[in-house]
């Protein structure tokens, strides 16, 4: 029942954002679409009777991730945006030590397939201010995380699964240089997160280059911390992603 309520709340937030976007687009503003590719390292832990390290215990490592970000900005006022990413990881190997996951004991040497599927939705408002030192932004966002983890015993064909979600309100800050030659440096951080069953934090920095009048190529380094299913004394997941990325953006 709780899971259904959280999903419906995400749909409601999405509907509100689209309503705001439609109003903004009608004011002859700018629509932007950004596609991002990165291949981050993954680390973190699951709390299921005992703490399970997703990298050292389950062998989960790199994953290629494609993100999409859609934004709308009117002639005046803030920028509204929606972002979606879906990191997924899997590995088949032998456990180096025993562990308990979702009430089932796995022994050292058991051959298992571990998998993790993460979904992150972000709906935000970005307020920009032009200063002599560049563009400074304050970003307010709602973030919904969903983390699914599974462990399957390959030999006995027996599996266990855990799911967790979280909802959080965030405040972030960004800076971007405004060079006339079209090559700019930037940095952003989201250090403040207030949520239920977990939260979301991120940081990134890099360089942005304009290609023509409507295209932008960006490269940099970023990190994310996603939490889900956290309640006092019960299971929860914490996932950290760090790595280099590149994305292509277009405004029209």
TrEMBL record:
It comes from the Bacteria. Residues 1-27 form the signal peptide. Keywords: Signal. This is Porin domain-containing protein.
């Amino acid at each position: 029942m709780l899971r259904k309520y959280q999903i419906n709340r995400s749909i409601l937030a999405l509907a509100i954002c689209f309503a705001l976007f439609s109003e903004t687009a009608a004011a002859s503003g700018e629509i932007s679409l950004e596609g991002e590719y990165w291949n981050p390292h993954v680390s973190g832990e699951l709390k299921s009777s005992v703490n399970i390290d997703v990298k050292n215990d389950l062998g989960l490592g790199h994953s290629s991730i494609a993100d999409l970000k859609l934004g709308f900005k009117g002639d005046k006022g803030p920028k509204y945006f929606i972002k979606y990413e879906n990191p997924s990881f899997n590995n088949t190997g032998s456990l180096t030590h025993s562990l308990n996951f979702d009430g089932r004991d796995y022994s050292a040497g058991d051959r298992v397939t571990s998998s993790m599927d993460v979904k992150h939705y972000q709906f935000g408002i970005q307020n920009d201010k032009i200063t002599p030192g560049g563009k400074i932004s304050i970003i307010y966002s709602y973030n919904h995380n969903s983390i699914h983890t599974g462990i399957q015993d390959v030999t006995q064909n027996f599996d266990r699964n855990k799911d967790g979600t979280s909802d959080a309100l965030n405040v972030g800050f960004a800076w971007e240089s405004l060079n006339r030659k079209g090559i700019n440096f930037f940095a952003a951080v989201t250090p403040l997160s207030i949520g239920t069953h977990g939260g979301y934090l991120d940081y990134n920095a890099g360089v942005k280059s304009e290609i023509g009048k409507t295209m932008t190529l960006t490269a940099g380094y970023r990190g994310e911390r996603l939490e889900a299913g956290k309640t006092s004394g019960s299971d929860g997941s914490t996932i950290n992603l760090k790595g280099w990325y590149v994305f292509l953006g277009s405004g029209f």
